[in-house]
């Protein structure tokens, strides 16, 4: 209950399984922080994944190309789920595309 599984192939780390496991033919449970609870939505793009929780926090993994996940050019890839900290309002919904991610925030 409440476990998060991914499988398939992603050379950019979108599966969230770490930098040494870029593909899996069978479902693999992600080891997620205790802070990531009550997942509301998962949005997957061609090379990244964003997880949204009921509390309005987002966690990302995969390609940060074009800085689409907001982690700066210093972090081209995110292996394992990383918290999006630049958004200070509660996130209500998220959508991921090839070169960008969109976040709907509370009050906006």
Structural topology:
Elements (H helix, E strand, L loop, with lengths): L4 E5 L13 E7 L9 E6 L3 E6 L4 E6 L13 E7 L7 E6 L4 E5 L3
Antiparallel strand pairs: 1-2, 3-4, 4-5, 5-6, 7-8
Q: What is the gyration radius calculated from CA atoms?
A: 13 Å
Overall helicity: under 10%
Described by its quaternary structure, the protein is single chain
| Low-confidence regions | none
What are the secondary-structure elements, in order, as H or E?
EEEEEEEE
Query: Shape from CA axes?
Result: globular
Total number of domains: 1
Pfam families: RCC1
Keywords: Repeat
RCC repeats: 2-55
Protein name: Secretion-regulating guanine nucleotide exchange factor
Quick overview:
0% of the residues lie in helices and 44% in strands. The chain is an all-beta fold and 108 residues long.
Structure description:
- The chain has 108 residues and is an all-beta fold.
- It has one domain.
- The protein is 0% helix and 44% strand.
- A hairpin with a 3-residue loop joins strand 3 and strand 4.
- The chain is globular, with a radius of gyration of 13 Å.
- The model has no long low-confidence stretch (mean pLDDT 89).
- InterPro entries: RCC1/BLIP-II, Reg_chr_condens, Signaling_Regulatory_Domain.
- Keywords: Repeat.
- This is Secretion-regulating guanine nucleotide exchange factor.
- It comes from Culex pipiens (House mosquito).
